[in-house]
Amino acid sequence: MLPLVLLLVVGAIMAYSSVSATQQRNKEMEAERIQAAELAQEKAKEDAEKRVYLLGEFDPSAREDFAPVPTEYNFSGYKIYLRKEALYAFLEMAEAAKKDKIELAIVSAARNFDYQKDIWNKKWGGATLVDGKNLSKSIPDGQERFLKILEYSAVPGTSRHHWGTDIDVNMTVPYYFETEKGKQIYAWLVENAFGFGFCQVYTLKGSLRPTGYNEEKWHWSYLPLAKTFTKDYKDLITAADIAGFDGDEYVPSLNLINDYVLGINSECL
Length: 269
What we know:
Elements: H1 2-54, E1 66-68, E2 81-83, H2 84-99, E3 106-108, H3 113-125, H4 135-138, H5 142-149, E4 166-169, H6 180-192, E5 198-200, E6 219-222, H7 223-236, H8 256-261
Antiparallel strand pairs: 1-2, 3-4, 4-6, 5-6
Helix pairs in contact: 1-7
């Protein structure tokens, strides 16, 4: 009789242990599920914040990680801002250029969505002439006009200037860099800018860069930050996010992200 009782007791203990182990595992699985859900929520929040930043939907002057370009180096005529890291790198580069008798200044820096929208809409509607023409009259076809503006101006929501990492140096017209002074400045930048973290994103178009904006010798990007933002843009932004400006109905028919946001000098990727 005693052995039977022992067997029953041992069986009961084993069954209880099995139930306890199952309950413990269930608790662990539930804790893992909750943790995974919390991490997913945090990632979603982080991605949403990144999207806002990448699309330029913020005020640079209100952010602690941006700073105004000092008056001495500001050729814009109004207050402009850059990410602090990019600004400090530029100031270091400008001081080095001075030693070689090269004067560098910034004519355009951070431009948020609304600023870029104003540039775009004025070209779209004819308030700003392009090549001396009112595009709303000279190019009535919407998609053709869209592509014409894209030669030098980014669609709102796609501009690298949104990120506070990119600068336009001295002048924003091609002919300036064909002058003796312009050639000297560009030659110095080609030789030295990379050492300070800057890269010319819009080089001459051709077999190495078949798509994107026309060559801009004035546009330089601070790569230690911009490389990350470029990758984030590729991963997080879709054509559906690019909207809210004149002519945005043509976005779905164009490959703006691959051909323009990512259509840059491969050395800058």
